[in-house]
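So, can you check what follows?
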Amino acid sequence: MSTKKKKLNIKKAIKKPGSLRKSLGIKKGQKIPARTLKKAAKAPGKLGQRARFAKTLRGLGRGR
């Protein structure tokens, strides 16, 4: 039995890149403010789902 750890492929997890930014009305190339992301994460439907996923991805980069 091998002990290799399978890597996550984040690119495949993001189905529609830029859709969260577009729905929030933030121009391309600008960062989404944490306050805006936190507020959007409470929204129902796809907007909330995408915002929660963005918060998760934001946390993945830390601690490296």
